[in-house]
Amino acid sequence: MNKQSLNKLTLFLTGLENRIEENREYFKKIDLVFKSGTKEFPGSVVLFGDKLKLSYSGNSEIIERNWLALRLSKLCQNYDSLYLTYEERGTTIYIEADDRNVKMKTNENKIEEVLSNHNDMPQISNRDYYIKVGQANDLLREIGILASNGKIKNDMIRKYNQIDHFVELIDDMLKELLKEHESITVLDCGCGKSYLTFVLNYYIREVLKRPCHFIGIDNSATVIEASKKIAANLGYHNMEFKLTDINSYRAQRDIHLVISLHACNTATDQAIAFAVNNNVKSVVVVPCCQQEILSQYSYPPFEQIIKHGILKARMADIITDGIRALILEAMGYKVSVVEYVSPIDTPKNLMIRAVKANPPNPAMLNKYKELKKILNIDPTLEKLIFQY
């Protein structure tokens, strides 16, 4: 390759160096094809710890990230042309270089382009999905939603609708956070296998095209290892998973959104308390079984109603989530409680969304204290926040 083309190629490759540095958590790989006459010599570049592993013609070498441009340019001196494909999550860059010219083009993996030749969506509905079949196939396949034929599994259509509805319900919250911060960090408390966390990661990075970082914590070693494996399979380097409980966790970076999905009993309260005590801007919880208030509350005017066990339990669920919302409001959060999934699927179908909007509200705190006395309850959430 001549000197003029090599100089231009070096300039483009320097841009890729900078891109890897800025987007290291999202970088996947570089595929290379060197050509001499009709012969082709494939190669690749992948991350290797803090460095890069360059492989070509049966050889491999470890190089510093800022050596990439010079090393590839030097190799190209021995070939007629280079075809390079750079991949990061949501973006593919192509570079073609020979003695005549050096060209670069970018494919941003736009939804419209991916779906233009994809006709599987009508199998579900006419809904405009946030997590689209076609674009999100790797993700959907890894979390068990998509079959090998590229279609949603019949027994997973309901689950697919649920995960997409979850994104829909917090989309405005995410976009507001991204107006305030260049990059956001999401903490998933009691993450389990983290399916919805992977979905959020995909949506923020590859649909909204914004930087993000995810931390999942759980006290089960099995689910932590399962989550790590899924992240590795997807190439989601912007995720970390920690074996710990919520009360013991200490954040090493600013957290912008706390989520807790189907955490049992007071584990939901622990997640909310972490958010409040660490001044986290946004909170999303979908509570699960709620036993604490059930064993505590009494309300004489309802005595003839709650003498029936099932009605007492359902009332306890409502009181528990209502108290959570009231305490959040007392701490200055704007709160909404919405139906997450149909009650046909599960009776545990409420989502509490909260965004820090004001300083603590003493009047609302007094209302909570009055209600606490009336119901004869002593919620864990109050203890965790006010450290009694």
From TrEMBL:
Listed transmembrane segments: none
Pfam families: Methyltransf_32
InterPro entries: Methyltranfer_dom, SAM-dependent_MTases_sf
GO CC list: cytoplasm
Coiled coil ranges: none
Keyword Acyltransferase belongs to the record: no
GO MF assignments: methyltransferase activity
Signal peptide as annotated in the record: none
UniProt entry keywords in alphabetical sequence: Methyltransferase, Transferase, Ubiquinone
GO biological process: methylation
Domain Methyltransferase span(s) in chain numbering: 158-294
Protein name per its UniProtKB record: Methylase involved in ubiquinone/menaquinone biosynthesis
